[in-house]
Amino acid sequence: MSERKATIASRVGLHARPASIFAAAVGELPIEVTISLENDPVEDAMDASSILSLMSLGAANGDVVVLRAEGDGAVEALEALVKILETDLDAE
Amino acid sequence: MQNFSGVGVSPGRIIGSVRQMPKPVSEPAVGERLSSSTTADEATASLRAASKVVQAELQGRAAAATGAGRAVLEATALMAADPMLIKAAVKLITSGTSAERAIWESGASVAEMLHNLGGYMADRATDVLDVRARIVAELRGVPAPGIPQSTEPFILIAEDLAPADTATLDPAKVLALVTSGGGPQSHTAIIARALGLPAVVAAPGVDELVDGTEVYVDGAAGTVSVDPAADEQALVAAWLLAAETLAVFDGTGSTADGHLVPLLANVGGAVDAVKAAELGAQGVGLLRTEFCFLERDTEPTIDEQVVAYRGVFDAFPGKKVVVRTLDAGADKPLPFLTDSTEPNPSLGVRGYRTDLTTPGVLKRQLTAIATAAADSPAEVWVMAPMIATVDEASDFAAMCRVAGLKIPGVMVEVPSAALLADRILGEVDFVSLGTNDLTQYTMAADRQLGTLAALNSPWQPAVLHLIRLTVAGSIAQGKRKPVGVCGEAAADPVLAVVLVGLGVSSLSMTARSLSAVGAVLKSVTLDEAKRLAELALSARNADEARTRVRAELPILEQLGL
């Protein structure tokens, strides 16, 4: 199991356009990725490819989230996803 | 020949074939089970396939859209095949529920979750319900909800249109609008006037017309006739001829005897403003500032606002531009300002009242307006919406002075403001009558309800009396401060004459109506307008008021209005 933390950079938090971009990126991966808020238990982790889950997570600008994945290419995949979360997607 | 009669809300005569707006998708029965011939696996596969079809459709629409609309459609497309939505539905299917009922329930619980999160998320609940309806339509093999796609131009028939339909309404494809519901001030009417499309609303029975049926629509008379013949073709030809005369406004609003009534435009941004200036508008009587705020999650910065306002001011050098401060709430919710859970938003925290719950937004907006006005060639006036008391008017005027804005005013939309217009005009420099809201609040009738269309007419003698009272307030105050009208009433050439007769000093309307209003106004003297106003005031009801005045204006027949 690989695990990475990321700080949400988008001004509006992880919803609207940033959530769309992130969910679409996860959806293209061959592995399953979960997301949870930093202090939430692992059982509460949600499917990161679901825009609805991301919206219900309610991660605001500056919040730290944990991404988890297993399998081939998990490390590289999480690396790429962290980059997306740590970019201010609203500014683009 | 079969005829339907309704209320004409946007003039024009046209012949074309009809397309029905698909009926809203009905709820699959509670407890609906899988049919005996379908296995759970098959139903799951159908659901996944339908969700992919809907997703692809929405992605296609997103690709064709621009700006904020595109982002919303992209997010909605993702929702269509969202694991959270689909997994919950599949679980229900496995326990024997039909695919339609399963996605219906799953969508409902997701929408409820979003609704409970409040703010921006609550607004997205509508998108989930839209996606759900599309998937159910796909599973049933019926047309998706929304304006039909067609390669040929058509006359759109609907129950009523919602503001959201404007985004998908292509004026190159839609020839006219006809609705069985809605009223003269419904969104259908507003959309039709803004796009210059002939429109008839509140015409019962039109929803029975079969797609492809040829009809004649008269948007002034409010009639729809099936299988038009030579007579109707002649009427269409006559309209096209009259439309040429009506295409130009000479830029000076006046009665036949030279009493000047500036004809201004209602605009919602710089693009609108440039178009309005080209159509001869003598200024802007209503700049709706919501355009900078809508479809956003956060308040725009002062700098962003300055740029947006300046774009409008620049289109009217040396002319008046009346800026209305943010009018959020009711039918224009904003996630960072309004509470979407209010039981009765029309009577809730909206317009100027949002300054109570979210202080600061208005102050920053006034700063932005003052900054944009400072180096602008336009004469900038500012007014607040939904003012109900003299104190509110005085507080707003004080805020304007602090911001450095010289000409503060307020809208008269709440009957209390019309009743105390003299005292309110003691605090501010002008008032502008918002007849749409003034009508709905005077008659206690929701603007969107087709069943109340008759109540919801600015021709109601009670509404006309409140307008007269507002003018009387200006006279009593002593300085004859301006009393303008910026509601839909000003765009009705017949009612415009009455408003001038009641003593209104300027009329602001959708720019496309300028020429028709200007032409009819030029056909009467001020004394005649006053006489017609008396006829309307003393009428027994709205219909009688309108009929009486129309009968005295022969030019309407000539121009096909």
Task: Note the topology.
The complex is a heterodimer of chains A (92) and B (561).
Chain A: E1 2-7, H1 16-27, E2 33-37, E3 46-47, H2 51-57, E4 64-69, H3 74-85
Antiparallel strand pairs in A: 1-4, 2-3, 2-4
Chain B: E1 3-5, E2 7-10, E3 13-20, H1 40-64, H2 67-80, H3 83-94, H4 99-117, H5 119-140, E4 154-158, H6 163-168, E5 174-179, H7 187-195, E6 199-201, E7 214-218, E8 223-226, H8 230-246, E9 263-267, H9 270-278, E10 283-288, H10 302-313, E11 320-324, H11 354-357, H12 361-374, E12 379-384, H13 390-403, E13 407-412, H14 415-419, H15 421-424, E14 430-433, H16 435-443, H17 461-477, E15 483-485, H18 493-501, E16 506-509, H19 514-521, H20 526-537, H21 542-551, H22 555-559
Parallel strand pairs in B: 3-4, 4-5, 5-6, 9-10, 9-16, 10-11, 11-12, 12-13, 13-14, 14-15, 15-16
Antiparallel strand pairs in B: 1-8, 2-6, 3-7, 7-8
Q: Can you characterise this structure?
A:
- The complex is a heterodimer of chains A (92) and B (561).
- Chain A has a single domain (2-91), classed as HPr-like (Histidine-containing Protein, Chain: A).
- By secondary structure, chain A is α+β, with helices and mostly antiparallel strands.
- Chain A is built from three helices and four strands, in the order βαββαβα.
- Chain A has a four-stranded antiparallel β-sheet with strand order 1-4-2-3, covered by helices on one side.
- In chain A, a hairpin with an 8-residue loop joins β2 and β3 (46-47).
- The model of chain A has no long low-confidence stretch (mean pLDDT 89).
- Chain B is of the alpha/beta class and 561 residues long.
- Chain B folds into three domains: 3-7 and 9-21 and 147-244, Glucose Oxidase, domain 1; 40-140, Orthogonal Bundle (Enzyme I, Chain A, domain 2); 248-559, TIM Barrel.
- Chain B is built from 22 helices and 16 strands.
- Chain B has helices spanning 40-64, 67-80, 83-94, 99-117, 119-140, 163-168, 187-195, 230-246, 270-278, 302-313, 354-357, 361-374, 390-403, 415-419, 421-424, 435-443, 461-477, 493-501, 514-521, 526-537, 542-551, 555-559, and strands spanning 3-5, 7-10, 13-20, 154-158, 174-179, 199-201, 214-218, 223-226, 263-267, 283-288, 320-324, 379-384, 407-412, 430-433, 483-485, 506-509.
- The mean pLDDT of chain B is 91.
- Classes of the chains: A alpha+beta (92), B alpha/beta (561).
- Chain A binds chain B through residues 11-12, 15-17, 19-20, 23-24, 27, 46-47, 49-53, 55-56, 58, and chain B through 71, 74-75, 78-79, 82-85, 110, 113-114, 117, 120-121, 124, 128, 297-298.
